[in-house]
């Protein structure tokens, strides 16, 4: 069983919902025992959670205290973190075996940076139309001189799913 944190936009970006669904479908095929970790149930996180539940994947939602009142679908495991948005992201990323960045803004990029700093295998989908697409231009392989992990950029949601499923200690580099 692999716990995969999914970082995705908390708002809406045209076409990103379809990419999220393709990622989840491919993930269910490649890792049917995967557990998805998400930071809420709004924006494109809804797309990930709903697709995962349809495919029979387990989902854990890490809610920030500002959004503990959100209605969640039946079948998700909820963690009421008791802390604000960024703090809940620490808990989510720390709990993950690998991190998949599907596209987003500053919150998504913060989660990517946290994953890097924690040495988590980190995979970033590019071509999403979201601000996180700029990560590859700014940081082609590493976010800093420590070279904590190789950041792996992929072109398709299906490739992202396969890479995340294969991730383990030292595995991220083989996809880079």
Automatic annotation (TrEMBL):
<protein>
    <recommendedName>
        <fullName>LOG family protein</fullName>
    </recommendedName>
</protein>
<dbReference type="InterPro" id="IPR041164">
    <property type="entry name" value="LDcluster4"/>
</dbReference>
<dbReference type="Pfam" id="PF18306">
    <property type="entry name" value="LDcluster4"/>
</dbReference>
